Amino acid sequence: MLQQITIQSRTSKPLKPLVEVAIRKQLTSLRHGIARTRQQLAAFENRFGMSTTEMEHRLQTGELSETLATIDWCMELAALRLLEEQYTALNEARID
Fold it and tell me: Does residue 64 have a pLDDT over 90?
């Protein structure tokens, strides 16, 4: 799906370079967030001796009971998915 936005300003200064810098900074911030979240997921994996994919599957099938730790683990996974989705959307954006 192609989306388009329009930005208007009363300033005479060119906005395109400012928007490009803002997007680059946000991409950097998202990359850092993704890295930190992956580290958190790796810590859970090391602590419990299973991959995040396995934990998620075992929770869904009832093989693993929900605990505060698994809830935190799932929240980290949800955060990673959101950050990656946002990164992809911004990274694919083109300013004409």
Answer: yes
